[in-house]
């Protein structure tokens, strides 16, 4: 089907994610500086409610649509592909309308009683109705992932981000000097406008995709009865939804627990909100920048593994897993070393009015590899039908994080660092548990040399080169922006050359993709 492969799909989505997240990252820096630590803290209180709602509505359905559409595509059952789409769309609309209504008519309770922040009320009122649009888009997104066509999602997300940023910045400029709650509400309104535009683009792409499928798959294939589809979708999506929801439940728990526990540790409410904003609104997005690429791998590996498993091609399944994990470590380790080498310098450059962000970035980066790998491994297990295992392990992960959040954050000598240590430990634990299940099911062998030793070696040498260049440029008083840019600009090619010298196999795959040979 139009030469759609797992690797090229990941590459397309990665390029789009880099553009999308790049725009979003720059915007987030601008927004954080406009809102300040306290305004960013309010923004971070609102976002978990939004993301929990979206995850509940979309994550399970999107993954299930992607998985079963890819399986039916592999079997040549065209009619089932469209039938799955229609049924999931109807299910999502019913649930989305219910959740949106409940949230809209209970906004005051959520803002004042759950978040203990009345200034969040307007923002929640704005995003509640848009949940129906977001949920509808997720069905289309899952369908396109299932046919391994990443272009619609890529283009839609970039356009959505551009619309969101331009709308938000224009309105903030228009209402300069407004209260913090109104500035936060404008930022949420920008997200809502972007989601509406994205949904309209998915509709246009879907009409084009239907023509392609009808042309390349002339036969309907064996039809799946409606009741079986509904039952399978519901039963399969529930554990996936809850395992994904657990991450957002943690975000919500952070909003509800961390500020109050920081107050217990001896900070004022304003200081607690500032520290909360620095860690979750500034340090976490910075340290998790490699997720721009690893999330693309998580998205594309699910239908690729499902398709191969449906045809009993286990060698292909193991190959896809090896590639997904290999690409993750190839990208993650150099980014981690960069943040360990220059955490204060990068943080001060991006957040000049928020001292202390660099200390958070350094510690978070040290354990971020576990989060990157866990996301990919969990997606693979979902593609292999092991969603219940992922859910069970995710519950363990959530328990460890909440215990650490509640007890360690209140300790004056640890505060937010205690929580960071706890979620790093939790990430490592769930990765180990999920990896054990994956090895048991597929017979996968851990490639220590290519997954770990080679990229870590190349990354450490790159880190040394970056530190030397940065130090030399400091002695001649080069502008800090130019200093950091040149240090990284020289460091990345050095890393790639080192990987090539170490004969890391994934670089050859990347070359083939760029030259359109794969």
From TrEMBL:
Protein name: Stage V sporulation protein B
Signal sequence, renumbered to the chain: none
Localization in the cell: Cell membrane
InterPro entries for this protein: PG_synth_SpoVB, Poly_Biosynth_Transport, Polysacc_synth, Spore_V_B
Alphabetized Pfam families for the sequence: Polysacc_synt
GO cellular component: a single term: plasma membrane
Keywords, sorted A to Z: Cell membrane, Membrane, Transmembrane, Transmembrane helix
Transmembrane segments: 7-30, 42-64, 84-105, 120-140, 184-205, 286-305, 325-343, 363-382, 394-410, 416-436, 448-469, 481-502
Membrane topology: Multi-pass membrane protein
The organism's place on the tree of life at top rank: Bacteria
Predominant place of localization: membrane
Cross-referenced NCBIfam families: spore_V_B
Gene that encodes it: spoVB
């Amino acid at each position: 089907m139009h030469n759609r492969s797992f690797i090229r799909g990941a590459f397309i989505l990665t390029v789009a994610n880099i553009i999308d997240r790049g725009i979003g990252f720059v915007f987030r820096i601008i927004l954080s500086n406009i809102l300040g630590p306290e305004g960013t803290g309010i923004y971070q209180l609102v976002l978990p409610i939004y993301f929990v709602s979206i995850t509940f509505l979309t994550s399970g359905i999107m993954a299930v649509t992607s998985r079963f559409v890819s399986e039916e595509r592999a079997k040549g059952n065209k009619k089932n592909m469209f039938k799955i789409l229609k049924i999931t769309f109807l299910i999502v609309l019913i649930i989305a309308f219910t959740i949106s209504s409940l949230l809209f008519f209970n906004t005051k309770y959520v803002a004042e009683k759950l978040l203990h922040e009345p200034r969040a009320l307007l923002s929640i009122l704005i995003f509640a109705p848009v949940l129906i649009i977001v949920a509808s888009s997720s069905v289309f997104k899952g369908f396109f992932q299932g046919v391994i066509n990443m272009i619609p999602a890529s283009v839609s997300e970039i356009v959505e981000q551009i619309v969101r940023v331009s709308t938000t910045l224009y309105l903030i400029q228009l209402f300069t000097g407004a209260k913090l709650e109104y500035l936060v509400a404008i930022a949420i309104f920008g997200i809502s406008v972007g989601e509406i535009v994205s949904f309209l683009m998915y509709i246009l792409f879907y009409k084009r995709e239907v023509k392609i499928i009808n042309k390349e798959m002339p036969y309907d294939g064996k039809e799946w009865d409606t009741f079986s589809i509904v039952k399978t979708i519901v039963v399969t999506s529930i554990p996936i939804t809850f395992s994904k929801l657990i991450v957002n439940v943690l975000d919500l728990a952070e909003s509800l627990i961390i500020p109050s526990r920081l107050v217990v540790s001896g900070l004022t409410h304003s200081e607690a909100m500032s520290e909360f904003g620095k860690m979750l609104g500034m340090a976490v997005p910075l340290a998790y920048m490699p997720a721009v690429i690893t999330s693309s791998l998580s998205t594309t590996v699910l239908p690729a593994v499902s398709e191969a498993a449906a045809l009993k091609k286990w060698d292909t399944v193991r190959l896809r897993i090896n590639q997904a994990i290999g690409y993750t470590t190839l990208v993650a380790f150099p980014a981690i070393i960069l943040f360990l080498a220059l955490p204060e310098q990068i943080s001060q450059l991006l957040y000049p009015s928020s001292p202390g962000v660099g200390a958070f970035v350094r510690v978070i980066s040290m354990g971020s590899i576990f989060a990157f790998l866990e996301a990919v491994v969990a997606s693979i297990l979902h593609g292999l039908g092991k969603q219940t295992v992922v859910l069970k392990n995710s519950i363990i992960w959530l328990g460890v994080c909440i215990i650490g959040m509640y007890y360690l954050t209140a300790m004056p000598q640890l505060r937010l660092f205690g929580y960071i240590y706890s979620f790093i430990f939790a990430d490592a634990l769930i990765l180990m548990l999920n990896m054990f299940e994956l090895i048991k099911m597929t017979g996968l062998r851990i490639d220590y040399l290519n997954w770990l030793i080679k990229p870590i070696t190349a990354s450490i040498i790159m880190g040394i080169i970056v530190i030397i260049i940065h130090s030399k440029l400091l002695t001649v008083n080069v502008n800090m922006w130019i200093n950091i840019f040149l240090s990284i600009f020289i460091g990345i090619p050095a890393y790639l050359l080192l990987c090539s010298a170490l004969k890391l196999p994934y670089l050859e795959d990347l070359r083939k993709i760029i030259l359109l040979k794969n």
